[in-house]
Amino acid sequence: MRASHRADIAVIGGTGLEALLKNTTQAQVGTPYGFPPSISLGEVNGKMVAFLPRHGVHHSVPPHKVNYRANIYALHQLGVKRIIATNAVGAINLNFKPGDVVIPHDLIDFTKLRPTTFYDEAPVTHVDATQLYCPETRRFLVEASKKHEPRTWSDGILVCTEGPRYETPAEIRMFRQLGCDVVGMTSVPEAVLSMELEMCYAGICFVSNMAAGIKERLTTREVSEVAKEKMLVLQKILKETIGNLPLDRSCPCAHALRDARFQG
Hints:
By secondary structure, the protein is of the alpha/beta class. The chain has 5 helices and 11 strands. The two termini are 34 Å apart.
């Protein structure tokens, strides 16, 4: 790995966020799980940052086919310690509206087919998911978000579904009864895999639509239009957060594997 191909912080998201970086270079990183999309490396507020386009450079990979293990492992190989993931989500909580920003504090996994761990073999490893979203990184995200977007929700439970279809009205009613606030398709297994490699993971979500059953019909065009509208404010929030994040970590993520393994 070349010395220039190192980063302390990573942003995972969609196209358009590459504009965050200055003096950009590209890195193709091989992993035991395959190749992720080309990763952009550059400077943001004096820090080296990696940007990984989750769905590929041309948004050609559907959520259930994303190679999450390759993506997260590649960032780990680049030296990344903190990951900020952006997500378009549907609102389940009726107080949330399209355009709102949500910094989730917990999640529920309703995915079905995805490899969700790096630890399929001995030693048997169980990471603690009590704080799956890094509390330290979340704090800086919340502070920056409230500064740049008045309609910021500093807490929220995200339910992750398999996709690529949108959810049914009955599913959304069930998720609301379970206490879920927003629904997306990509936070799992990203958050879990990051914890397994002792990397901080936090998410910033923008509400792109009201979930199924709350409105008559969902369209991908609607999601894309809201994403474009929120791009500038997302860039401002990310830049400020990255600039304020300390390089030294004082969160449980840095020691996630401590006491997590069965020793034979």
